[in-house]
Amino acid sequence: MAFRTLLSILSIVAAFQGASAALTRRVACPDGVNTATNAACCQLFAVRDDLQQNLFHGGLCTAEAHESLRLTFHDAIAISPALESQGIFGGGGADGSIAIFSDIETAFHPNIGLDEIVELQKPFIARHNLSVADFIQFAGAIGASNCAGAPQLAAFVGRVDATQPAPDGLVPEPFHTPDQIFARLADASQGEFDEILTVWLLVAHTVAAANDVDPTVPGSPFDSTPEVWDTQFFVEVLLNGTTFPGTGNNQGEVASPIAGELRLQSDFAIARDNRSACEWQSFVDNQPKAQAMFQFVFHDLSIFGQDINSLVDCTEVVRIPTPIERFRHRLTGEDRSRSRLRSRA
Question: Please, which domain of life does this record's source organism belong to (predicted)?
Answer without folding.
Answer: Eukaryota
